[in-house]
Amino acid sequence: MPSILNRLRPYAMVAPALVVFSLFYLYPIGYMIHLSFHEWNFISPVKTYVGLNNYREMLADDTFLQVLRNSALYTVMTVLLATGTALPLAIWLNRKSAFHAFVQGAIFSPHIISLVSISLLWSWLMDPEYGLLNGLLHLFGISPLKWLNDPGTALVSLVIVAVWKSLGYNTLVFIAGLQSIPPELLEAAALDRSKPWTTFRRLILPMLSPTLFFLVIINLIGSFQVFETIAIMTQGGPINSTNTLVYYIYEYGFRFFKIGYASAAGVILLIIVGTLTLIYFRLLSRRVHYR
Q: Which residues form the ABC transmembrane type-1 domain (predicted)?
């Protein structure tokens, strides 16, 4: 009897977490998949089974294909810039001084500000007539940009906001990774007169691979889930140039009341994010070096 209780004790301890996970994660996913095979206006209690019609209609829609392209382009630019700028900044800030500590706190502060506030701030900064950014461009004799009002620059403008928001968090995580590198390894490289680039490529980057692996996954998932900045700053425009998957799902679900269609788009988003994460794990997990 005691042995049975000992075997059941771990399951009893994780049972509350499993119940919460099933209730707030597994059940909504299952219900979304169920709704994707139905037609429902969110008001009527009647759901009409339509099979794969929602998926066929969605994949035949040129707007949805453009949304996929926008999402992919936004994700690639955001992940590359957010991690690519944070790493050299972290290497520069990895020093013990009051100035570097102040800069660390300054660049981290956007991370704790809500996206709503940040979106409103950047909407003013990028205003084509009264914005601060065009005022700075005018001082340097550069023609002002339309930023959020031009299909050619609107998506890039949102990427700038996303990178500015996440830069501080990524930088501090990289600094934590740098400080976990044993100093004797760096001292040995200095004694061997290793060049800075060689030390970075052969020593620092492999030791930072778990940190880099983590940040890429976090930024990848977060980029595909972008919603607040688009809803406040562009509403998917101009000419659908900034419409991404989550905002597309919101529009069809809560503006057009096509819940089945929106659920089908949600399933596609789930498949894309899950597939990309799995591929990333399969391809790069072996290159991650843990001490």
A: 68-280
- Whether 243 and 132 have beta carbons less than 8 Å apart is answered as no
Query: Can you list the domains of the chain with their CATH numbers?
Result: 61-287 (1.10.3720.10)
Question: What DSSP string runs through 66-126?
Answer: HHHHHHHHHHHHHHHHHHHHHHHHHHHH-S-SHHHHHHHHHHHGGGGS-HHHHHHHHHHHT
pLDDT per residue as tens digits for the range 108-138: 999 999 999 999 999 999 998 888 999 898 8
Cβ atoms of 161 and 167 closer than 8 Å? no
Residue 63: closest CA among 205, 283, 237:
237
Tokens 């977490």 -> residue:
17
Distances (CA, A) of 123 to 107, 135, 254: 20, 14, 24
- Number of Cβ within a 10 Å radius of residue 99: 9
Q: 48: which strand partners?
A: 39
Q: What is the pLDDT of residues 157-187, one digit of tens each?
A: 999 999 999 999 999 999 999 988 888 888 8
**Which residue has tokens 């977060």?**
222
Question: Nearest to residue 206, comparing CAs of 282, 291, 279?
Answer: 291
- Asked whether 71 and 244 are in contact (CB, 8 A), the reply is yes
Nearest to 203 by CA among 228, 223, 222, 184: 184
Give, rounded to a whole angstrom, the gap between the first and last alpha carbons of the chain. Answer: 41
